[in-house]
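Hey, quick one: can you model this chain's 3D structure?
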Amino acid sequence: NSSPSSGPSDLEKVMDKLQGIYRSLETLTTAIKELKDTNAGFLTRIMSVEQRVSDLQKKISLLQVCLDDQENRARRNNLHIIGFPEGAKQGKPAQFLQNILPTLLNIKVESPIEIERAHCSLASRPPEGKWLRPLIVKFLRFPVKEKLLSAARSLGKLEWQGHLIQIYLVLSKDLQDKQRLFQLVKKTLRDLNVRYGLYYPATL
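Sure thing. Here's the predicted structure for all 204 residues.
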């Protein structure tokens, strides 16, 4: 008869290895669960940040609209006038315009046009005979500005001592960009002889 082995049997060795594998699996399972929990936390935080970014973008867009509206309201009494020679104003643009505008626009005024301020654009003075800097004029009263603008539009071409004079609204860049979107539509309507009008605010 063979004598019993003093060492562990093959079965015991296999069992020991299996137990070691089980322990490793448990460790891996725990690690995977922890990673999943961590990832879930990260995903939750990422989603929260994305939502906050989206909310902030909406607020920024709204603030930009409000800012543009306020900018245009602040300019509602303003006009750009282009075409007067540099020396014609003699350093007193407001007084010059008070004297010239009624005749230029063929309107009757009972008292001098009230101008809060008038100045050339901040660009440097151009050389003689070159492009002319626009006058930026702020009228004291909105109806007066509207009356002058309406008269300019009705007359169409304006001339003063051989110089072509142009009068424009002063609008923010954003509003000018939006108005340009209507150009093709307005041209199409004119080509079709369709009368049209725009009411502010308008959406294309």
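One thing worth noting: The beta strands are 78-82, 115-120, 135-139, 158-160, 163-169.
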